[in-house]
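thread: overnight batch results

M.L. [08:02]
morning all. the overnight job finished for the chain we discussed friday. pasting input first so we're all looking at the same thing
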Amino acid sequence: MFIVKHKNFFAFLSLLLVVLSFIGMFTWGINEGIDFKGGSIMEIAYPVGRRPEPEAVRQALKSISSTNFGEVAVQPAGDARMVLRMRDITESERMQLLSLLGSVAKTDTSTTTSAVLVEQKKFNSIGPVIGSELREKSWLAIVAVIILIVLFIAYAFRKVSAPVTSWKYGISAIIALVHDVIIPLGFLALMGHYYGMELDILFVTALLAILGFSVHDTIVVFDRVRENLKRHAGKTFEETVGISLSQTYGRSISTSLTVFIVLLTLYLVGGESTRNFALVLIVGIISGTYSSIFLASPLLVYIENWQKKPKK
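M.L. [08:03]
and the structure it wrote out:
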């Protein structure tokens, strides 16, 4: 099987992607959303054709001497909506902001009235303490999921003792899962730097979904390795892994392709709030499919080869 034969190339490619992801994270950092750093997010709707330009809103905010809203991120959404992200604001500041947003609307030359009905579609406010707690709990959830998955794999393959023991299947799985967490984080750093993508609860949800999808594929391959160890007792472990991959990789790719099509559709026609979620899942599904086929199982071969080395 060419995957096992060229395992060094695929291992190098995985390492390269991980290193590039770390470089991106350390160079650009992770752009945290209000879910984790605290703040307020407001989504408003204008009458069609009357939404102001983002720069006009920023200038109007700077002109207010009585209230300092701090740095406000202004992002158009759809044809007539606008999303604002800022520090945690009070109720009186929220009302003041709504009034300001109505005053900077574009004039409508087709009517004599100057009234603008600014409708607040969404408003969420999270304090910095709660945001910090959410951050800690989110990463704790990811670590807990990885540990539980590894323990489950070690238990499920507990009767496999040769040539690789069950807990080493767990080691291969955890390396693949860490790979599947780092790649989307590197992608987030890239998209956050150039397009303002943020780390929020939806991103963490996407990571957990990616871990589940990835380990499912990995277990399918590992289970076939376990079966083939009995069926092909005369073959080497490397040959057995290669046979197992050749029997399962087509199904894994077909499943991933089906999910990819669904996520791509969600990204193209879904709402503004779900596009980043779908995009992260697309990256994660690609990464998870790659790691389950080209990384996790070849790692078993590396472990088996390491075990065969004579002890000094």
